[in-house]
Automatic annotation (TrEMBL):
Alphabetical list of PANTHER family matching this protein: NA(+)/H(+) ANTIPORTER SUBUNIT F1, NA(+)_H(+) ANTIPORTER SUBUNIT F
Keywords: Antiport, Cell membrane, Ion transport, Membrane, Transmembrane, Transmembrane helix, Transport
Membrane topology, from the record: Multi-pass membrane protein
Intracellular or extracellular location(s): Cell membrane
Transmembrane segments annotated in the record for this chain: 12-32, 41-63, 69-89
Protein name: Cation:proton antiporter
Superkingdom per UniProt: Bacteria
Family per record: Belongs to the CPA3 antiporters (TC 2.A.63) subunit F family.
Length: 104
């Protein structure tokens, strides 16, 4: 094993460790909240961590098809974030409209 291969193997292990730590912390944020936007942002972060796992797995195995999967997951995550943002915005507008101080 050459020095370049051992450095790549070490880097993959470090990347998997850091991604695992970020995954656990992000799941903790999803569970603890405290607000809906915090949870939505944490779910978006989970998608980013998933893309990181796919990318590092692709680097470790040399399979280039993983890049296509990561791109597709990124697009789905982006669309889900937009949908959640629209939901939160419409919910806030409805809540503001129904408050007694806003009624005439």
């Amino acid at each position: 094993m050459s020095m370049g291969e051992s450095f790549l193997e070490f880097s993959v292990y470090v990347a998997f460790g850091l991604l695992s730590l970020s995954f656990l912390l992000t799941v903790l944020r999803v569970l603890l909240g405290p607000t809906l936007p915090d949870r939505v942002l944490a779910l978006d972060m989970l998608v980013a961590v998933g893309i990181g796992f796919i990318a590092v797995t692709g680097i470790a195995t040399g399979v280039t098809f993983n890049v296509d999967i990561a791109i597709a997951l990124g697009l789905v995550g982006f669309l889900a974030t937009i949908a959640f943002a629209r939901f939160v915005a419409s919910r806030k507008a409805t809540d503001d409209h129904e408050r007694p101080e806003n009624r005439t």
